[in-house]
Amino acid sequence: MSTHEVQDLKSEEIDGAYPKACVVNTTRYRVHGEIKYAACSTDHFNLRAGAQESFARGLCLLTRINAVVQLEDRDVQAKPYTSTGTSYSQFAVIEVAPGVFEVTRRT
Prior knowledge:
Layout: E1 21-25, E2 30-37, E3 40-47, E4 52-55, E5 62-70, E6 75-77, E7 81-86, E8 90-97, E9 100-105
Parallel strand pairs: 1-8
Antiparallel strand pairs: 1-4, 2-3, 2-5, 5-6, 5-7, 8-9
């Protein structure tokens, strides 16, 4: 790579790349949202009930996952996952009480 080329920090091809960021929708509703990274572009997801999606993130540390749960009669903002910058890769949107949702790390 020449000094004039800039390598995409989100490329899976980078040595030492973090595992793909994966979001699982464990609710019975459709969920849409975004994954934000430190110094990298945002990824967007739209998941049906029980679905998951993964995103290559190369060397990008994850800082926030926002999610909106689409109930039959209204949209509900889930409590976001936030971090100063994490390499964790597995996350889920869960229902913690009737009509109350959050994005959490899966272990």
